[in-house]
Amino acid sequence: MAVTIKKAALIVAFLGVLSFFFGVIAENKKPAAGTPIPGKDVVICKYPWDPSVPLGYLSVAFLILSSFAGYWFLFYPYKGKSVPQSVLFQNTSFFVFFNVALFTGGLAATLLLWPTITEHLHLTRKVHHNMDTQCPTAKTGLLGGGAFLSLDSALFWLVALMLADNAREDHFDEVEKDIKAQAHVAA
After folding, report:
1. Is residue 126 included in any domain, yes or no?
2. Which of 21, 53, 121, 150 is least surrounded by Cβ atoms within 10 Å, i.e. has the fewest?
């Protein structure tokens, strides 16, 4: 089964949408705060059951898969023909969208990982020696922002895929014209 641009686009989009959904659900399920339980010289934080940590990690995993797929499919040889990378990067629009896709993917990973790891630390380190501890959770809004950036990243990968396909067609048209011109001159 050969991979086509349409199949590649569907894979990248599907993985990006999954990352988006997991990130949004993680943001919505995150508790506002824990309950402080005072003890002798310590405060123990009790948090309600929280699926935001595994959902946050799933969102990051699907973001990485989407970005990897987008990157890989850009340079995949379609129909047994590969194009030199220099040809793709000579196209200014492709160059811009490629770099924006990389940047938004990195920023999305940062905004998804930061609150997920912070929340994970809050849930595992429950004993505090500061008696004024209010049992905080990760900053609100970062998971949702990361989820939207994850979706944006997938969309930028899709645009880069379309631009790469156009650059491939232009390159092969030029190669075909050169071959015909050389055959005409040789005859």
Report:
1. no
2. 121
Residue 80 is predicted with a pLDDT of 73
Give the pLDDT of residue 135.
Answer: 85
Given a cut of 70, the residues of the chain with pLDDT beneath it are: 1-2, 175-187
Cβ atoms of residues 121 and 148 within 8 Å: no
Rounded CA separation 112/117 (Å) = 9
Type and span of the H or E element at 37? strand 35-38
Q: Which helix (H) or strand (E) holds 38?
A: strand 35-38
Backbone angles phi, psi at 74, to 5 degrees: -65, -35
Q: What's the first-to-final CA gap in the chain, in angstroms?
A: 40
What is the pLDDT, as a whole number, of residue 150? 97
Q: Would you list the DSSP string of 96-142?
A: HHHHHHHHHHHHHHHHHHHHHHHHHHHHH--EES-TT-----SPTTH
**0.70 cut: is pTM over it?**
yes
What is d(CA 9, CA 178) in angstroms, rounded to the nearest whole number? 31
Phi, psi of 81 (to 5 degrees): -115, 130
- So what's the pLDDT on residue 97? 95
CATH code at position 147: 1.20.120
**What's the confidence (pLDDT) of residue 1?**
43
Sheet containing strand 127-128, strands side by side: 35-38, 43-46, 127-128
- The encoded tokens of residue 149 equal 């950036």
What is the span of the domain harbouring residue 87?
A: 5-32+50-116+139-186
